[in-house]
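Issue 218. Parser rejects a valid record. Input:
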Amino acid sequence: MNHPLSYVEANFDGLVGPTHNYAGLSGGNLASLSNKTKAANPKLAAKEGLKKMKTLHDLGMVQGVIAPLSRPDLGQLRELGFSGTDANVLKNAAKHSPALLAACSSASSMWTANAATVSPSSDTKDGRLHFTPANLVNKFHRSIEHQQTGRILHAMFNDESHFAHHKALPMSNYFGDEGAANHTRLCQNYADHGVGFFVYGERAFDNNAPKPKLYPARQTFEASSAIARTHGLDEHKVVYAQQNPQVIDAGVFHNDVIAVGNRNVLFCHQQAFLNQDSVYQQLTDAMGETLNIIEVPTQQVAISDAISSYLFNSQLLSLPNGETALVVPRECELNPNVNNYLNHLIAESRGIDKLLCFDLKQSMQNGGGPACLRLRVVLSDQERAAMNSSVIMNDTLFETLNQWVERHYRDQVYSQDLIDPSLMTESQTALDELTQLLNLGSVYDFQQIGAVR
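Output the parser choked on:
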């Protein structure tokens, strides 16, 4: 299909919600577990994220905002047998199942790399931009996200002539889907028919296939291939690779903790994939052109260093001035091995021209870095014109959202604060206002049920 229009890769960052808290809900995510019970700072977390968005906007990138989910999820608690007023639902859930209340109050939706898998119109059979919300079935607290996520994405991309929205895959571990955290698109230019690179942790229907032993493989081959089919991708332009089970057991719970790619650059660890040389060859063949593979040796950066610094949970950006930038968290500068490697990488001019370092401590302490916070969407000129422009970052929106955060967010939230009905009311009031600022309509259950309570 001929695409005469120009395309650009936009980054849509999740806005951290007003109930941001540390609950340590994700086994296999070492940062999440180690900070359980500590106080979180929702106001600081939101502002850290907004600062990153504004900085990338100022560099000329197309930068958008994705609204947070409403938490606690009262509808889920009611489905599980807690009834009465909203305050009674919280009180009884805390009394009978505090772990369930924590799960229904999770802040994990801030990591929008897990929101959905996205295939641009230049790659799909029907020439539309396709979205599939991730079912996230491996963790209960995340498996309840996809319906709200789907509504928010639909409110952002609501023209059916340009955008196709699919339901989440079947809610079964056989089709465990973690979204864009395990998907990378490679190409020479964004308008090209690109290569969909899907990384999975196991083949669920093959009991004899290799799989991790300590932590679960959250993404299955079956899920990845189903998304490729439903999005109408050319099978000759799709590559599937299995993540190394040993690195999953070391704490690499998603591919975006061990590899990142953009256009014709793949930046990954030496131990990222099974049969790594074969993966490289398949990608090169599917590309049909040169693929610049930057492989980080274990001898220089151990897996433990990659995890603690989130070196690969970075954003690889093609800046408008022609430079390629790597967006990393501050922890990369603080880790001597990683910092030394990155300094040499930039000096060697191997395809990454500059580093952009951000302080994202609130997100990092909950287990997510720069790449976790954003969903990449390749857009044509027509698609940019057809989408909801109110979610695109600019100077005015940046100031508006910072003021909104100042009005509605607390400086400190402990897990025990989740029982407080006033925190719930504060959050609903804030989100109700946010949907008006971002022109989203009534995407939250509490808005559809009635007035904010």
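Fixed in the parser; the record now loads. The chain has a mean pLDDT of 93.
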